[in-house]
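User: For my dataset I need records formatted as: sequence, then structure tokens, nothing else. Please produce one.
Assistant:
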Amino acid sequence: MRASERAYQTLREEILDWSLLPGTVLAEVEQSERLGVSRTPLREALGRLGAEGLTRTARGRGVVVSDVSLEDVDELFELRETLEGKAAALAAERGDSTVFRELQEELLAAPGLINDGDPARHDYYGLVGRLDEAIEAAISNSYLAQTMRGLRVHLVRVRRLAADDATRLTAAAAEHAAIAEAIAAGNARLAEAATTLHLHRSLTHLKATHTPQ
């Protein structure tokens, strides 16, 4: 793996899991020494992170980890509703019903994963990721899929702003199951509506349980 790719992957993971908090200064000398790369590949890595919106340039401070605020969340969810609602509708029109029926059944059983604690919850998030991937594959629109993947980078960080409680996750699993069911049935309008409902409830929960970082 190239030095710039290694630096990029490490910094990206640390930003997404909040090991590097918003506002953290990514000084070139310090990060080069810590990551064991020269400054040229580090700059390339920082440039890629900046293009994703994970870092920004702050006057007098250099490159810092981008902030995440409730204002950002509102904008993200506005975009999510537009993109993901359309994607669900297209998946219902173009997707393989068998794939989504199987995902629906797994999502209906997801409360067992959620209630088994943190390690099992990673399996739940993986299941939701598989639904996202299935929708992306079904829509046959590389531009829409790429845009949604870029958006989800920020959603991983947003999760940390809300309480990750079993009650909400269980409800979200049922909402995801309803999306999969509508897609499997080939009902585009219902798939879009189910997606909109899920996003509305997710945003409401996030705002109600927001924990300042």
